[in-house]
Write a structure and sequence with these properties.
The protein folds into two domains: 13-49, no CATH class; 57-236 and 290-490, Alkaline Phosphatase, subunit A (3-Layer(aba) Sandwich), CATH 3.40.720.10. Helices cover 31% and strands 15% of the residues. The chain has twelve helices and 16 strands. It has helices at 9-15, 20-31, 79-83, 91-94, 153-162, 172-180, 238-259, 262-285, 292-298, 319-335, 354-378, 450-460; strands at residues 59-66, 116-119, 124-127, 140-146, 190-196, 218-220, 340-346, 385-390, 394-399, 411-414, 418-423, 431-433, 435-436, 443-445, 470-472, 475-477. The protein has an eight-stranded mixed sheet, with helices on both faces. It has a two-stranded antiparallel sheet with strand order 2-3. The radius of gyration is 24 Å and the shape is globular.
Length: 492
């Protein structure tokens, strides 16, 4: 009897239905949209077919404003807060409050200088810092009652992206691709685009954790070589590369037969995907085929505002242009079957000079995000594409009074109540959900946890957050951990 090393490739694939051959076949069928939970005959072999129902959302663009934008200066006008400007926080609140940097004994309330108006037929509130995004009001779900138990950035970011505030857990993009499989054969199912100075959470925000590495986010660049070291070294012919990949695959297949480690299957899949990406990725980031009207709508090649000391950038970075390109690339990725795209912009951590830095950051994101929503809508993609605008928490109604500062010009961390926006993906447009008290301290109407948010997003993809599990170290893990409820009031 021949050993596994002497089998032909056809024999290997056709006689190992419960092993690597089944995994490869299941992957290909899933990529081509031919495999679903309803027709998967062998759950062990076709583990990727986990959709629990047909959901309206097929892709998600999660635009993560790392550092926490001030909801009090963008989305939630508080006339009473302006009226109480300079006064102390009521003792009933102060005695129970927890702060990152504020000195509670001398802290005072800080109103907003922004001008406000209601937009769209729904009458949604936006400040004067968001003239473009406000034109999308009737397509937006504004959630004003998010809350979090994490008041420092990295734990808060892990909670928002991974469902729990600790390292090593799969991110939401990984869970969704694990649940549904990739819809693209030539690009990763999960892509990350960065802009600005770089987030404090780094790659821990797009990890696959204990899930297979093929579900991890792949960081793309929006110009030049899309993924570092993707292209062949000079002098390496395509035929030589193909021969090398075939040899690696044969070795990995033989090793898999011995140890049955599923990560070996992921290694093979990643090698093959990288090979296909050598053609698909450069075409993706090449914007020369886009019309001048589209490029201008997104703000591609926008100049940077004068100055180089804004919180959201570093000298030499073209953050305004980068964000425009990232949003346009996100639309192109959706068209090519990428399931989950993270656009991460840092930093909105404005403890000082709030007016200057918030104006800079809002200007960077306002035009391209509005263009993305409108572009998806006019192409018929918004109903099936969920666009999320959010962060790890919000900013406090108190002014920052850190020792050594002459005046309150910024806001501290505030997880008790903050705002997020969603558009498309089967969610209600022109709808405001939840409310906060008169100074914006607590969520007083329809409070929403991060686990609720995740449960509802999964629901729109046709995934039951209670059933989307993975057994690791003797426990069934899920994105929503041990909590979370679907918020049906958000669903159109």
């Amino acid at each position: 009897m021949n050993s596994p090393l002497h089998r032909t490739r056809r024999e290997f694939l056709t006689t190992s239905a419960s092993g690597l051959g089944g995994i490869a076949l299941g992957s290909m069928l899933s990529e081509d949209g031919l495999l679903t939970a309803a027709n998967a005959a062998d759950p062990a072999a076709f583990a990727e077919a986990r959709s629990h129902r047909e959901g309206p959302a097929k892709a998600c663009i999660f635009i993560f404003m790392e550092g926490a934008p001030s909801q009090l200066d963008l989305f939630t006008p508080k006339p009473k807060l302006n009226e109480l400007h300079g006064q102390s926080l009521p003792k009933s609140i102060l005695d129970k409050a927890r702060f990152a940097f504020i000195q509670p004994d001398t802290a005072t309330l800080m109103g907003s200088p922004r001008k406000w108006a209601k937009h769209g037929q729904c009458g949604m509130d936006f400040s004067d810092l968001l003239p473009h995004l406000s034109t999308c009001a009737d397509d937006l779900l504004m959630i004003r009652s998010l809350h979090s138990e994490q008041f420092n950035h990295h734990p808060g970011q892990l909670l928002m992206q991974c469902g729990v505030a600790r390292f090593g857990m799969p991110s939401m993009g990984s869970w969704i691709n694990y649940g549904l499989g990739s819809a693209s054969r030539n690009l990763p199912g999960y892509v990350v685009l960065n802009a600005g100075r770089g987030g404090s959470g780094g790659s821990s925000l797009w990890t696959s954790g204990f899930l297979s590495s093929k579900y991890a986010g792949v960081q793309f660049r929006n110009q030049g070589e899309p993924v570092l070291n993707l292209q062949n070294p000079a002098g390496l012919a395509p035929e030589m590369q193909r021969a090398g990949l075939d040899a690696l695959r044969d070795l990995n297949e033989a090793r898999y037969q011995e140890v049955h480690d599923p990560e070996i299957a992921s290694r093979i899949a990643n090698y093959e995907l990288a090979n296909r990406m050598q053609t698909a990725a450069p075409e993706l980031v090449d914007l020369s085929g886009e019309s001048q009207e589209t490029l201008a709508m997104y703000g591609v090649d926008r100049p940077e505002p004068l100055g180089n000391d804004f919180r959201g950038t570093l000298p030499g970075l073209r953050t305004y242009d980068t964000l425009a390109r990232n949003c346009l690339l996100a639309r192109r990725m959706v068209e090519r079957g990428v399931r989950f795209i993270n656009i991460i912009h840092a930093s909105w951590d404005q403890h000082s000079e709030l007016d200057k830095n918030l104006t800079y950051n809002a200007g960077a994101v306002d035009q391209p995000i509005a263009a993305l929503i409108k572009d998806l809508k006019q192409r018929g993609l918004l109903d099936s594409t969920l666009v999320v605008w959010g962060s790890e928490f919000g900013r406090t109604p108190l002014g920052e009074n850190r020792p050594g500062r002459l005046s309150n010009t910024g806001r501290d961390h505030h997880p008790q109540a903050f705002t997020m926006l969603m558009a498309g993906g089967g969610f209600k447009g022109g709808h405001i959900y939840g409310a906060t008290d008169e100074i914006g301290w607590f969520a007083t109407e329809n409070p929403v946890s991060i686990n609720d948010l995740h449960a509802t997003i999964l629901h729109q993809f046709g995934l039951d957050h209670l059933k989307l599990t993975y057994r690791f170290q003797g426990r069934d893990f899920r994105l929503t951990d041990v909590a979370g409820n679907v918020v049906h009031d958000w669903i159109a």
